[in-house]
Design brief:
Blueprint: H1 6-33, H2 40-50, H3 53-78, H4 86-100, H5 107-114, H6 122-151, H7 154-174, E1 178-179, E2 182-183, H8 184-193, H9 196-223, H10 230-246, H11 254-267, H12 273-301
Antiparallel strand pairs: 1-2
Helix pairs in contact: 1-12, 3-4, 3-6, 3-9, 4-5, 4-12, 5-6, 6-7, 6-9, 6-10, 9-10, 9-12, 10-11, 11-12
């Protein structure tokens, strides 16, 4: 049997980590460079007109809050396996985000977090990460459906709601539709086993994160001179996020998907297409690209257990 030296293994692992980081940055660059709808000249003119150090700082602070609440959510849930510090939770969340940015429906994120724990805890970590992400989907769904009703899209919201209920009922009774290996019934039972305080904190942090994200989009629209009533803008943003979440996609094309939906719905309100595209792209940069840059550092620092 051929024996591979420890240094060779270390070099191989470094190459793998470097490829992950390079791939993440390649997809980010390609999305920004090849998007023909991004009119940088118009953006620079408006930016110079409305630029504000306080405004930029505020938007960056909202990005920090968005990711910080996600980190707190993971720290809260991870204690079911092991108590981790905020710094450790930060490392795991950002490194996992980097791995998930170019994988379908963020599969890499589940793998990334599991790598920080013992192999025997992998299934539990995947389940907890599913809970972490699942609460955001439920919150997004609740406010999204409510927003569609407010905007008058009753037929759409009713159809989506009925479809979701039908899917849940079918998966619950047939037990053939699985979520990462769990039937709906087993999934619900596993959630109930988690202490109530942890579940409650997860819900509160999820709502806070959602509120921050939606309002960051709102403030960017205002910064681009979109003068429409607050309720109209907020409910339209919530509708776009709901519909975008229904379609499984890669993280790196997430802003393209949201951008297309946003162009349609904000177009109905008379908002210029290029403004909508830029706001969506900036949301992606602020909440995905910047964290991935930091996460890449943690990916490169990650130490695999090379001992057999």
């Amino acid at each position: 049997m051929i024996s591979i030296s420890h240094k060779t293994k270390q070099f191989g692992v470094f190459i793998i980590k470097l490829l992950i980081v390079i791939t993440a940055f390649y997809f980010i660059y390609s999305q920004l460079a090849n998007n023909t709808k991004l009119d940088w000249d118009k953006f620079l003119v408006l930016f110079q007109k409305n630029q504000s150090v306080a405004g930029i700082t505020f938007l960056l602070f909202l990005s920090f809050l968005n990711r910080y609440f996600e980190i707190l959510k993971w720290q809260n849930l991870a204690q079911e396996v092991a108590v981790i510090s905020k710094m450790e939770a930060t490392k795991q969340v950002l490194a996992a985000l980097t791995l998930g940015v170019f994988t379908p429906v963020g599969i890499g994120e589940y793998v990334g977090k599991a790598l920080y724990f013992e192999k025997k805890e992998t299934k539990k970590i995947i389940f907890l990460n599913l809970i972490c992400n699942g609460i955001q989907v439920l919150i997004l769904g609740f406010f999204g459906f409510l927003s569609m009703f407010i905007l008058g899209y009753w037929k759409w919201s009713f159809l989506l709601l009925c479809s979701c209920i039908a899917l849940l009922l079918i998966s619950f009774f047939t037990k053939r539709i699985l979520i990462h290996g769990y039937s709906i019934e087993k999934f619900i039972l596993k959630i109930i086993e988690i202490p109530r305080k942890i579940n409650q904190k997860n819900i509160v942090l999820g709502i806070l994160r959602y509120v921050v994200l939606i309002h960051q989009f709102y403030f960017l629209l205002v910064a681009f001179d979109v003068n429409l009533p607050y309720l109209t803008l907020i409910t339209t943003i919530a509708t776009v996020y709901l519909l975008a979440s229904i379609i499984p996609s890669f993280q790196f094309i997430d802003f393209a998907l949201k951008g297309s939906l946003a162009v349609y719905f904000f177009g109905l309100l008379g908002v210029n297409e290029w403004i909508t595209v830029f706001v969506t792209a900036l949301m992606w940069v602020l909440n995905i690209v910047l964290p991935v840059i930091i996460g890449s550092y943690y990916v490169l620092l990650f130490k695999f257990n090379l001992k057999k």
